[in-house]
Amino acid sequence: MNVTVLQFPGTNCEYDTRYAFERLAQKVTIVWHEETVIPANTDLVVVPGGFSYGDYLRSGAIARFSPVMQAVRSYADNGGYVLGICNGFQILLESHLLPGAMKRNENLHFVSKHHWLKVENNDNRFLRRCEVGEKLHIPIAHAEGNYFIEKEVLKELWDNGQVLLTYCDEAGNPANPNGSVDAIAGICNKQKNVFGLMPHPERAMETILGSEDGVKMLEGFLI
Amino acid sequence: MKAIVNVYLKEGVLDPQGKAVHHALGSLGFNGVNDVRIGKQIVVDLDAEDVAAAEEEVKKMCETLLANTVIEDYNIEIVQ
Fold first, then answer.
1. Would you please indicate which residues of A are annotated as catalytic (active-site) residues?
2. Is A101 part of the contact surface with chain B (CB cutoff 8 Å)?
3. pLDDT digits 0-9 by tens, A39-66
């Protein structure tokens, strides 16, 4: 599988993301944001974490207008798989490739720790290797992960199986580190080819670093 | 011409920063405060034919970039 990882000024997770997919024996190309095309044989585009454009104005607001994002839009419109992690998720929200928006965390803190996630839906490419209700231990690191969406659209997300991951504690009870509506940590679009989550599966690839639960998440994309 | 753009979280969207400042004001003894909303101000210096044209142009800027209308409202004031 060919994975294309985007790189904006201020991106800082592109090499971790490359490492994660190379660990899964996949070919990874890092693509600078000024490129106007996605490499032709791309099977998955990853918009990685970081602080694109210094988070100026709003997280992801300026990256959205990068030339490469126009290419990502047509790639996604043609059914290509796109995964946004952390700042990448914020960029996909600002691009309206995913519904909703991010606010400052409820407690106003930058939250950086391993957190438990509950798999809400696995009827999609991303989480097909996970079980519904399964708990995953994945690092989070963000100040603007307070997911917001209007009530009516929130109901649609649940009804369509677009809510993929929620925050929970070790026992699976609701636990909300940032104030997100319904403790949502990750979603996908209606067509189920564009995915976004605040937690970092690429930082959970080996037990010695705290968790390898990210492996089965990213493995879902493997052909 | 200058446009002063104020961007706020929409009414009904919980404003975590406003809430924290409201709480802090209460701790300082300012007890009559009903609500605090925190927004941002963006000052745009631009060339335009007249106030109406400037307003229209800045409105487009707000809709495409300056505000995220999923969660934010904005208002525009044009000053000469």
1. 86, 200, 202
2. yes
3. 999 999 999 999 999 999 999 999 999 9
